[in-house]
Amino acid sequence: MDWEPETVFEVIGSEEARRILAAANVEPVSVQALSDRLDASEPTVYRNVNVLQEYDLLREDTRVDTDGNHYKVYETTLERLCFELDGGGFEVDIELRRELVEERTAVRDGETEADGEP
């Protein structure tokens, strides 16, 4: 996904999105837990999570609880975001946690984490 300054302002401009990134930076967290922590509806959280995933700012993982139920948790991949004024315009520098992005790409491409092969 290409990051234009307008896109960054739009995505990060959402208070809910910033709060989700901050909460998911502490530990992997479910939508239900995010909804409770942020005092926001689950549909609102899901909308923001989907946008953040679209731009690789959140990594999704599946967990299993003690009853054997599967649920998804999200972890922030954003490490650093810098806006810089340059020559009358904006430059945006986005740094992601590379290991989380590479893990997500490997899983999406059908590789296993254990052997790195399909």
What features would you describe in this structure?
With 118 residues, this protein is an alpha+beta fold. The chain has a single domain, classed as Winged helix-like DNA-binding domain superfamily/Winged helix DNA-binding domain (Arc Repressor Mutant, subunit A), CATH 1.10.10.10. The protein contains 5 helices and 4 strands. It has helices at residues 5-12, 15-26, 31-38, 42-54, 98-108, and strands at 58-64, 70-76, 78-86, 89-96. Strands 1-2 form a two-stranded antiparallel ribbon. Strands 3-4 form a two-stranded antiparallel ribbon. Helix 2 (15-26) crosses helix 4 and helix 3 crosses helix 4. The two termini are 24 Å apart. The relative contact order is 0.15. The model is unreliable at 103-108 and 112-118 (pLDDT under 50).
Task: Lay out the secondary structure.
Elements: H1 5-12, H2 15-26, H3 31-38, H4 42-54, E1 58-64, E2 70-76, E3 78-86, E4 89-96, H5 98-108
Antiparallel strand pairs: 1-2, 3-4
Provide the gyration radius in Å.
16 Å
What CATH architecture label applies?
Answer: Orthogonal Bundle
What is the terminal separation in angstroms? 24 Å
What's the helix-strand series? HHHHEEEEH
Gross geometry: elongated
| Domains (count) | 1
The CATH C-level class name:
Mainly Alpha
CATH level-4 homologous superfamily? Winged helix-like DNA-binding domain superfamily/Winged helix DNA-binding domain
Spatial arrangement of strands, main beta sheet: 1-2
Which residues sit in consecutive blocks of at least 5 with pLDDT less than 50? 103-108, 112-118
In percent terms, what proportion of residues is strand? 25-35%
